[in-house]
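We were asked to recover a plausible sequence for a given structure. The inputs and outputs are reproduced exactly as logged, with field labels preserved.

PROBLEM: sequence recovery
POSITIONS: 494
GIVEN STRUCTURE:
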């Protein structure tokens, strides 16, 4: 089962539902984090700096400090709060630290060296950007050049959105309590949290609160399509049409078609809008290139992918309306989304369809669909994806670091696969083709979207690993690797 992801509000609900736990949740969190710190450091490293903030995250840090001191580590605590304003649990943690002979520093001692820094300055409750002394302290932590273990979330990172709030700690490790938070998985979160570990601290979060969000992983491929019997023909693998490829953008449509074919679709037609369109794809001659004019008059398709390199011509709009009128499942990307954003008629056609429509915007396209700025979309990616899904009554995959998939009923998923090398031309076209190719073969629309997004990122990660890094990653080589991974998921052990 996919792991749950909880917002700050949901975590508070779970903590409340847990009641007066014994031992208290702060004690449990402190012990779990201290054990994690000990695993990170090994036997030789002994010097630890703990930075404790003014709230319960600071209380967690004080608990960590007390445990590590009991285990004979040399611990220095910097306390950036007010003793009189601590919660009861945090005061108890401070008392435990001081009972062991521990003292509090007001600033990071100059010239000292540590083997590990524990960041317990601010947790999930941070509501405003860091400034003044707190921002300076974050910058000082980052300037130490020492590995940082963040408690719950790196200080300064919004736990719900992944946005940095003025300044944020860059951690090598993050131990997060009870469950995953979306801000660790999307936008700036992955660049700040490092290696991520979940400590449930004795709670069964899903029994206390059903999650709205989940994290995609390789298990999403299991059972997506059945294994093919030997008595099989291409008609059983479905048919797909790709609409796109206006002048100067033919490659986008061809990439989508190639991805669909190599993920297993039986027949793939590519309708190219360019006047000087080729008659054959020399790199993938199995694709059937067609003039777009009467495409829907002569063929029935299981799926249609519209948008890669489609342009904004009148013909493109007319073909998009024909696609929307068809009974096929649609995957809309790129220029199809731009056309949708600017046309009430297209929006009504989408919301009125009985067949599924899937939307795969990048942040700028998402902003057009919502009539807002890209910055507003990125400020809360989950909220933006949910708004698009509700407005267009369609599942949506908001692409980017930690792609967010949302459905009209409010459910959402985050994908953690993928890397910075995928910020390259053609990647979105490859994703469109993978998703549409899976649908053509009979995969349920939403399952195909979830699986396609994860598979797309996983293939990118695999190619980057093989090449020694993400630079120079291309959509074409990603497509081939996606095929290998998907075959392995379906046929491993056969």
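RECOVERED SEQUENCE:
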């Amino acid at each position: 089962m996919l792991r749950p992801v909880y917002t700050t509000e949901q975590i508070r609900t779970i903590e409340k539902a847990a009641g007066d736990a014994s031992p208290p949740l702060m004690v449990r969190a402190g012990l779990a984090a201290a054990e994690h710190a000990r695993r990170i450091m090994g036997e030789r490293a002994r010097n630890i700096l703990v930075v404790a903030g003014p709230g319960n995250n600071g209380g967690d840090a004080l608990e960590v400090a007390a445990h590590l001191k009991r285990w004979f580590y040399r611990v220095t605590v910097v306390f950036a709060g007010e003793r009189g304003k601590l919660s009861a649990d945090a005061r108890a943690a401070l008392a435990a630290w001081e009972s062991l002979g521990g003292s509090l520093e007001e600033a990071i001692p100059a010239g000292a060296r540590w083997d590990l820094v524990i960041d317990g300055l601010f947790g999930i409750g941070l509501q405003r950007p860091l400034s003044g002394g707190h921002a300076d302290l974050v910058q000082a932590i980052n300037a130490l050049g020492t590995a940082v273990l963040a408690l719950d979330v790196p200080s300064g990172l919004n736990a719900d959105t992944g946005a940095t709030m003025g300044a944020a700690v860059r951690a090598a490790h993050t131990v997060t309590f009870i469950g995953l938070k979306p801000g660790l998985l999307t936008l700036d979160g992955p660049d700040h949290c490092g290696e991520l570990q979940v400590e449930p601290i004795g709670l069964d979060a899903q029994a206390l609160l059903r999650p709205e969000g989940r994290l995609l992983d390789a298990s999403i491929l299991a059972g997506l399509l059945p294994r093919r019997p030997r008595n099989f023909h291409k008609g059983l693998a479905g048919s797909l049409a790709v609409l796109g490829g206006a002048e100067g953008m033919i490659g986008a449509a061809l990439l989508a078609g190639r991805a669909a074919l190599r993920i297993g679709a039986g027949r793939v037609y590519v309708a190219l809008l360019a006047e000087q369109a080729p008659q054959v794809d020399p790199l993938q001659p199995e694709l059937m290139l067609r003039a777009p004019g009467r495409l829907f008059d002569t063929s029935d398709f299981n799926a249609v992918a519209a948008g890669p390199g489609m342009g904004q011509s009148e013909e493109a709009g007319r073909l998009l309306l024909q696609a929307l009128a068809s009974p096929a499942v649609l995957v809309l990307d790129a220029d199809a989304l731009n056309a949708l954003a600017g046309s009430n008629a297209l929006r009504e056609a989408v919301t009125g369809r009985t067949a599924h429509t899937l939307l795969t915007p990048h942040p700028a396209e998402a902003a057009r669909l919502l009539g807002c700025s890209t910055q507003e979309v990125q400020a809360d990616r989950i909220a933006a994806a949910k708004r698009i899904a509700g407005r267009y009554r369609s599942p949506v995959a908001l692409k980017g670091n930690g792609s967010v998939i949302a459905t009209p009923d409010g459910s959402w998923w985050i994908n953690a696969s993928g890397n910075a090398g995928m910020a390259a031309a053609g990647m979105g076209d490859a994703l469109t083709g993978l998703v549409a190719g899976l649908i053509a073969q009979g995969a349920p629309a939403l399952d195909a979207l979830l699986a396609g997004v994860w598979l797309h990122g996983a293939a990118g990660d695999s190619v980057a690993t093989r090449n020694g890094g993400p630079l120079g990653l291309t959509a074409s080589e990603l497509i081939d690797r996606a095929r290998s991974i998907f075959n392995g998921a379906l046929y491993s052990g056969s």
